Amino acid sequence: MFEDVLSFIEAHERFLISGHVKPDGDCLGTEVALYHFLRQMGKKVRILNADPLERSLDFLGDDTPFEVHQRGQSLPEHDVHCLVDCSTLGRTGSVGQAAEGLSGVEYMVVDHHVGSDLGDGDILLWNPEAPSCGCLVYDLYRTAGAPLTPEAAEGIFVSIVADTGWFQYSNTTDEALAIAANLVSVGVKPHLIYNRLYRRNPREQIQLLGEALGHVRFEEDGRLAICPLPRSFMAKAESGGFNTDEILDQCRSVEGVEIVALLKEILDGKVKISLRSSDRYDVDDIAREFGGGGHKKASGAELPGPLSEAVQALEERCRERLRD
Ligand SMILES: [Mn+2]
User: Fold this and answer.
1) Where are the beta strands (DSSP E) in 103-149?
2) How far away, in angstroms, is 113 Cα from ligand 1 center?
């Protein structure tokens, strides 16, 4: 796979890199590493995402140019469009809409989600077993014998810690740790990255977390934690830059919890759901029933709403799963 991807890259000139909407640490860190790899290969490269870097990840933009696509804006000229941490143009928001109907462009998918071989990719850098997308780009550097620049090493490290939850999740393989060790040996400083990621929160963060936790309830003898967040809360959370993943972590910290379901009422009354599970359960198929998907133990979907109906439907499905 890596050799094929390398020959593909060599045969093309202008690359556009885009990630999924609301890009996370894996998506952005991988974009950084891929950007510098392609630059080393002498390619013309631009990163263009539908959404800006969120506050905790803004440092990734210090040495790498991230551009934010404005709805309706046409895309810069490119021969290859790299889709990162996703596999379809549909996941790239307004970028994907602007790409519709373009001819003469090939798509390179850099992803580790199940089923991404069925996406828009003409060529795939894809392995559903990879701990993060950054690990795939790391292997690309190794295959090419290309030196890891400090920016690329930092990007790959961020991608790994984002998707393994700082080596807590079951995808913390020996490979993930070995790559991380190598990145530290070339100069990555984990404690500085941790501080940048998690110790620069605005003060409102702690108030919003307290308020959010007030919406949590436990069902099925405490095996299901469910947290519905109404629009009124989400409006405050969005303007305060509150990261709702914190709620998931708090719920998972409770003994006996097997499935965590977070429901967020977003714009237009739609409801975004995030599911997390313990080793014993697969929540990806639940998310898929609702038209979403992701990983076995971390998945999500979007429901039409209203919130009360979404809660009812999802809760029922999670309860069934826990009784299987
Ligand atoms: Mn990922």
Assistant:
1) 106-111, 123-126
2) 7
Distance from C-alpha of 53 to C-alpha of 36, rounded to nearest angstrom: 18
* Domain limits for position 287: 204-323
Q: Does residue 157 share a domain with residue 97?
A: yes
Torsion of the alpha carbons at 311, 114, 178 and 189, rounded to the nearest 10: -50
Residue 165, SS3? coil
pLDDT tens-digit map of 69-127: 999 899 999 999 999 999 999 999 999 999 998 999 999 999 999 899 999 999 999 99
Please write the tens of the pLDDT for every residue from 47-56. 999 999 998 9
With b meaning 16 or more CB within 10 Å and e meaning fewer, what string describes 83-117? bbbbbbbebbbbbbebbeeeeeeebbbbbbbbebe
- Of 33, 24, 60, residue with least CA distance to 136: 33
Helices (DSSP H) in 109-243: which residue ranges? Answer: 133-144, 150-164, 174-185, 190-198, 204-213, 231-239
Expressed in angstroms and rounded, the spacing between residue 220 Cα and the centre of ligand 1 is 30
The span from the CA of 49 to the CA of 313, in Å, is 33
User: Could you tell me if 37 and 164 lie in one domain?
Assistant: yes
Residue 112 Cα to ligand 1 midpoint, Å, equals 6
173, 243: one domain: no
Of 198, 213, 228, the residue at which a domain comes to its end is 198
The whole-number average pLDDT for the span 207-214 is 96
Question: Ligand 1 center to residue 85 CA distance, Å?
Answer: 5
Please indicate, yes or no, whether residues 167 and 265 belong to a single structural domain of this protein: no
Helix %, strand %, coil % of the chain (to 5) = 45, 20, 35
Do residues 66 and 157 both lie within one domain? yes
DSSP class of 261: E
Please answer whether residues 304 and 271 qualify as being in contact, where contact means their C-beta atoms are separated by less than 8 angstroms.
yes
**Number of domains composing the chain:** 2
Q: Is pLDDT of 209 > 90?
A: yes
